[in-house]
Amino acid sequence: MQEPLLGAEGLDYDTFPEKPPPSPGERARVGALQNKRVFLATFAAVLGNFSFGYALVYTSPVIPALEHSLDPDLHLTKSQASWFGSVFTLGAAAGGLSAMVLNDLLGRKLSIMFSAVPSAAGYALMAGAHGLWMLLLGRMLTGFAGGLTAACIPVYVSEIAPPGVRGALGATPQLMAVFGSLSLYALGLLLPWRWLAVAGEAPVLTMILLLSVMPNSPRFLLSRGKDEEALQALAWLRGADADVQWEFEQIQDNIRRQSSRVSWAEARDPHVYRPVAIALLMRLLQQLTGITPILVYLQPIFDSTAVLLPPQDDAAIVGAVRLLSVLIAALTMDLAGRKVLLFVSGYAMGWGPITWLLMSEILPLRARGVASGLCVLVSWLTAFVLTKSFLLVVSAFGLQVPFFFFAAICLANLVFTGCCVPETKGRSLEQIESFFRTGRRSFLR
């Protein structure tokens, strides 16, 4: 018998009473090979997040360089710099919108692979830019690719990972995004801005090559009636010596009970709208902490302060600290739990990686593709408003005003976490969905 996710009293919480799950000892015997293959598939996918993190902060060293450019076609004013920094988020919002269709139309894996097309084109435009329009279009295309991968990769990873390592693997998208940002900061110390765009092509091409030989999500394949292919994919992910029949039957049973997409009438059902509402609010509040404008304008922010080190060195140090923090989160998430880290840690250990993981865990299967795209759309539209207005607010009122606002949002996040966010540590996706379906306690009270 499972304990309720939030500890509510009432009827027994027993998701699949017909047949008990394999014992921990049985799962441990095949865990090593199982995890190796899941890790490989996850690494192939999260290279898209590396590219996303790299592209997001591309403007940090490039804006100061272009503000001092002698080429009149590339010289940036403050207003143009704000567009160069923020237009990425408009592309990301469009990518999230497209993911609402592509995630369920092409599947998770093919949608991630498709993102390589606008990403490669965007980097090429910025590398060969001879005018502002090429820079803006390149930023928008790389943003579109980032928004698409931000919606698709967490879903793909959560659907291929077993519960015991899903927390650690769920942190890898954010981990790779932070590593991508750190790589950009480090290369920015060595390379001119055009070559930074050229270097951005490498992870995109590597992702395509690796993903082409990885399996699709077994859950997506089952939802399309491809049972044999789904069983083969699950068997490959879990290893030749693993008994996947029990897991396959549980996934199959859950999908049979959800054989169609959610209708508008069903969307009013609490077991659908509650997890979607929680995921949307998490994405909104995550962006309102100010992380995107801070990262986009990190080097200009340090330029306006009295720090001792050069701004480009400060940016690289911030990237290194973020990487270490996300790595700690990945290693402790399945031990400490999601909510504990949301309460006691900073952005890179808590609201950065965990909100993406929880989004992919709590969204109902039938609405997962559309809802994850909607979450990304809301996230990046919010990021655009903040990023576009950040430099203007700083110029008018000073750097302290936006940072006081971000601090107030962080306090609101603590209240939201305590009242609304469920603990999903150690639960299968089917168990999490079954919990929401019981409706014994509203998360939104």
UniProtKB/TrEMBL annotation:
UniProt-listed PROSITE patterns: MFS, SUGAR_TRANSPORT_1, SUGAR_TRANSPORT_2
> Which residues are in the Major facilitator superfamily (MFS) profile domain?
41-425
Give the transmembrane ranges: 38-63, 83-103, 110-130, 169-187, 340-359, 365-383, 390-416
Question: Per the record, which residues fall in region Disordered?
Answer: 1-28
Q: Report the domain of life of the source organism.
A: Eukaryota
**Cellular compartments annotated:** Membrane
Single GO cellular component term: membrane
The UniProt entry lists membrane topology as: Multi-pass membrane protein
What taxonomic ancestry is recorded? Eukaryota, Metazoa, Chordata, Craniata, Vertebrata
Record-given protein name: Solute carrier family 2 member 6
Instruction: Give the organism the record lists.
Output: Propithecus coquereli
The record ties this protein, via InterPro entries, to: MFS_dom, MFS_sugar_transport-like, MFS_trans_sf, MFS_Trehalose_Transporter, Sugar/inositol_transpt, Sugar_transporter_CS
Q: Which UniProt keywords apply?
A: Membrane, Transmembrane, Transmembrane helix
Q: Which molecular function GO terms apply here?
A: transmembrane transporter activity
